[in-house]
User: Fold these one by one.
Assistant:
Number 1:
Amino acid sequence: MGWRSKRIGLALGGGGARGFAHIGVIRVLEEEKIPIDIIVGTSSGALIGGAYASGTTPEEMERKIDEYLNSQEYQSSAIRTIEKAHDGELGSLKQKIQGFLQNKFLLLQAMFKPGILSAEEFQSMIDFFIPDKLIQDTRIPFRAVTTDLISGEQIVFSTGSLREAVMISSAVPGAIEPRKAGKMLLSDGGIISLVPVNAAKREGADIVIAVNITRGIFSDEELETAQEIRDRAADIAAHHLTKNELASADVVIRPGVGNLHWSVFSHAKNLIAEGEKAARKSIPDIRMVIPLFRRLFAKSGSLGHSD
């Protein structure tokens, strides 16, 4: 095995629709011939990372996104209803009232069941983007980060169904029902690790390029309801947890995703472009880190030959 085997890791963070920015980042890393030896993803980072690791190109992913967003399945889905309520798309007063009531109905449903979205609807979306194969058979080694709601521990999938692992890693609490696995109850990896830098290092990466798509910490929104206050408190906690984990990364790429809600999938093209822009800006830092790493290994005598 050469020096690059499981050496450069790509840690793709979670953030719902903001994860489309990962496609732009990957496209630039490909163009610049930056070798990636392992991909570790959380939530939407697992979705994009799993697709790429299994052989789907950035161009193919972009085409699939266009196809999915224009499909009747998506247009009539609960995700689309949530998006409309958070993206200011509802023009007339009638549309706004309808959208408000639909969104409130979905939230009311969540009080009586484990998730707003049906497992079938969400699984259908995962299956559209992720091929039916095993994690151990991906072109690039891949890991999906999840959280066990029983023990509170991080669980990293390295074998088994790729679709199942991505589905669980993307199970946003409250929106998607967690999955039972033996004594575990598995949910979104972002509960513990929104950008899985430490998981990438534990899985063998010596250099970690992290992609952070979390929303900015500053907010001037009025906090008028208990739910808004709770959500804001969760955002603050996640920000500081992520900040600590990013300190272990060698390079952090920060696409300009703003404060987009996780459900705003129709902004895909802009998000991909922001990923490209941020990655190009980070290329000098990546190129500086990789030669430094190679020199350190050469001095220690542990630098092998490339495969």
Number 2:
Amino acid sequence: MNSQALIVDDEPDIRELLEITLGRMKIDTFTAANVTAAKKLLSEKKFDLCLTDMRLPDGNGIELVQYIQKIQPELPVAVLTAFGNMDTAVTALKAGAFDFVSKPVDLERLRGLIDKALKLTSGLSEKEESNSPFQIIGQSPAIKTLQLEIHKFARSQAPVYISGESGSGKELVARLIHQMGPRSEAPFIPVNCGAIPSELMESEFFGHKKGSFTGAVEDKIGLFQAAHGGTLFLDEVADLPLHMQVKLLRAIQEKSIRPIGTQKEISVDIRILSATHKDLAIEVEGGHFRQDLFYRINVIPLSVPPLRDRKEDIPILSEHFIQRLSKEWQLTTPTLTSAAKGALFAYAFPGNVRELENILERALTLCDTNDITAENLQLPATQVAGIDTHSSTHSTSSTNTRASSPPTPSASLPEGQTLETYLTDIEKNIILHALDETRWNRTAAAKNLGMTFRSLRYRLKKLELDDGKGE
């Protein structure tokens, strides 16, 4: 059975163009010249898609979008807007429109929009979160609300601005919005805006042609083209320099980009999701972020709650992380003692879910029994209210009791190395030397290194030294 679409426009030529285009896509069409006729058809038939003009004789497209949101919220509605009128388009998206199309209608872009809309109504893109490799873990009211919002916003093509503290799971939310929407089979391209050098930003986002500047030894596809058909996630968008904000705004408005060294505009079909731990409204007030760009990316605001506001999820999250890490490291899954659970519940978690995962990863390496104690967690005592994290009767291995001062290293690093890579190399060499001395007997090597077998096993996996030798 063919899909059915409702076309609402008072211009006969536009209605005919849309009817022909949809007819060639094997979609049955019904037309209305005004809001009244459209409401009558909506009461008589069930549609899979609605295309409506913004200006109608007895009302406007926004009113129709709002009406459909009340009677049939699952019906995707695309609004036809005047060319360049982004303010109207944003207003339509905020009202609940699935997407918008500028006049004169670009038929290729229209067909792409229709395909995505029909995926929603056919259920092809609707994926259960439980079947996803990315999940929001928790049962708190705050998380249940967030899960409902993700389901709802996944059906739209409007830009979503995700706010929340560092470590609260903003990228995870973005991935779920992408995966549960009609673009799920296309690329999800995340980019940390604060990690790209300012002078390379335009090339990274829009690409360049060979020879367009010194060092451009070959053509490069930018992030916008890489995300074509899918989703571009701009993480830490507040860190974009002002000159790049101007170029980004134009790319979002025009839905096209121009690689460095070319004169030709390239159309891109992407959905923009953005996030930052900063308060963008304050950044706008301070002149650090353009108000017009904020208006474009903040069509749908979505706030991710901090962990301290959903503490009832800490036991579920802890169990999830411990089981996953134990499986990855091929260890017997330990359990949290009552004192450890109390310490976690009392802790403020300034680093949110990411910090909880890191704490449990560290604790898993320190415990040498099947119990993770409060002492293993090594929580800052000043941030744990009323909990003595050292009250456990269990004593950890000698790794924790050695208090000798570390040697003072040289103030300069070898050329081409960071402190992290330098220290990693030292750790690798020490562990490999201990393993060579014991002929890869890991139990003996761990003893010589003053650590538990579990801790050594973790470090071998982390440093990619676990080649299956020995025990």
Number 3:
Amino acid sequence: MGKAIQLVNLTKSYGKLVAVNNVNLEIEEGEFFGLLGPNGAGKTTIIRLITGLTKPSQGKVLVSGYDMAKEPVEVKKKIGLIPETSNLYNDMNAWENLAFMARLYGVQKEEASRRSLELLELFGLKERLGSPVRQFSKGMKRRLAIALALVHKPRILLLDEPTGGLDVQSSRSIRQTLRKVNEEGATIFMTTHYIEEADQLCNRVAIINQGNVIALDTPENLRSSSPESVIEVAFDGPTRMPEEVERMCSRVVKLRDERYRLFTATPGEVSKNLEDFANSAGRRIAAMTTTKPTLEDVFVRYTGLDALAVERMEQLRQRRGAG
């Protein structure tokens, strides 16, 4: 397989602010690749650099071997872009949006009609092809935006926060469709700050923070790279974690008054201390589990997010559900 995307010493500065700092990445053809990072980490800037919407301060972008700076037309033939903000025409219906995008890419009328029907079927929008886009829900608009990016059959699909702001059902539907598009051979490069989403979809992920790629591997390898275990413990009422237990952990996250996540290299010893503490304090341990860190835990370790951010991420994960 060849290289779908190559970022070579890629740097983008805005005055003294370095948004992307000497990034080197290679994405294989057919790969589902995720770029993870907190808001403001440089994810969207990298998408803009790949698509030519922004020029690099240093380095270069190669797409299917074509240099974006020298052969932008060839590059744009190869890619389909789904930006974070909508690129739909709300006064047009779904069919008209697809037809307009097909004309922009020079797709012949007969082929455009056939392709549009396929995409509307794939994204569950065939029954609404004549409806004005302004009547669509957020999830329907996002599905149509992805359909527009696929109308010219690009080999590479770029998605910037594809499920941002969507409900659980819409997010699940989009993830299922993206899996199918990838299985049919398209390379997908996706930015997201939803760690669980990247874990479900991506062959490899890179973690970016403050413009720097600080980790790159498969989700499985990133999870197994941690020497620690995670203990989740819930007491039968509000409880303050004893200092002697905290000293045995690298991080203690209070999820609720009675529930904690503890990160430790000595899970057996910590578990015993928790049981001893509960007995001496007249408390009962309602539940206790020991697992390896999740990709979310690894992300937090690399990016240095604080305990409050961890709590917000945990709450968001519970609301979004698995898809």
Number 4:
Amino acid sequence: MNTSRRHVSLTLGTIALAAASFAYGPAFAQETIKVGVLHSLSGTMAISETVLKDTILMEIDAINAKGGLLGKKLEAVVVDPASNWPLFAEKTRQLISKDKVAVIFGCWTSVSRKSVLPVVEELNGLLFYPVQYEGEELSKNVFYTGAAPNQQAIPAVEYLMSKDGGSAKRWVLLGTDYVYPRTTNKILRAFLKSKGVAEADIMEEYTPFGHSDYQSIIAKIKKFSSEGKKTAVVSTINGDSNVPFYKELGNQGLKATDVPVVAFSVGEEELRGVDTKPLVGHLAAWNYFQSIKNPTNDAYIKQWGAYAKAKGVAGHKDKPLTNDPMEASSIGFNMWVQAVTKAKSTDTDKVIAAMAGQTYKAPSGIVSKMDEKNHHLHKSVFIGEIKADGQFNVVWKTPGPVKAQPWSPFIPENKGKKDEPVVAKK
């Protein structure tokens, strides 16, 4: 009798669990697949990176709602390296060794990525890096879903040199003082000189992270631009310094018709806290803008808007914005899901092999492809003008996706370098 009662009890319990699973969502194996999220949620880079954390959480929710991955629920492990570059390495070691994450989505600045790189190589981890960068790097353990210089910086300068872009003859290379702006500007200097631009027609200036007083620099740019030749500014300013830079640009009346500024790290999110009316016509070069019209982007914006509202995402609950690094994060995440599904495993080496040639219908309107060798996406390039509402009007684009050149041909030392990552020593 006791045995029979126990059997009935167990059976009823099983039925109850199955019913709960049916009512509340898919049943998962007890073990989860942990996903590391490594973005600055405080400090100077929080203005740009916080929304990328939320993007990955949105994508995790979407996969879990479809039944998870390999029958398991995805579990986010979110850490805050707080715009502290050495802390990125420490948090990466924690994520891989202690938290046992299968993959990390994170970093914005190149100095943070450079901090993380030796750790993921040593521990054979996997990093998806979603932001444009200077190139000059390839790693077995990193997938670069942002733009290389030939997918952003070079096309932007070529556009400004063209008749449509204003036929610029003098150049101000203005950036935050770290590896991405300095290396990008080294490439741009060499490119400009190859086009016959004289040394005297190139001005180069750097400011530290968190810099807020741009009064004297804007005055210097105005003086430089008044010396008889059409001048353009190439901005690689990163983080919250963009807000005072653009405010000062407006204060001093430096209009796009006089001295156009093209930015590589300013999108819809960074312009949120700025009066954009005086900035109309200034430019940004990216591989995606929210204003791009196509059904895939419409669905992406709708997905983000619903998620932001449901989760009360700061700043996005009532005015949801998407941007290029968000799109790059989503592409990388979904390609990783496809690679894990193909490999039937989260094993790093198996996933790396399965990532080669992965494709994904991107919100930008193209089918993004992960290059079979160089761990970079083939991406279209767009140049957009700032509008009064903080959105961008696309004024130029490439005919189709552009293959990345991680090793720039404008750096002589790169001659003969292979366009594929060296296998890291274990």
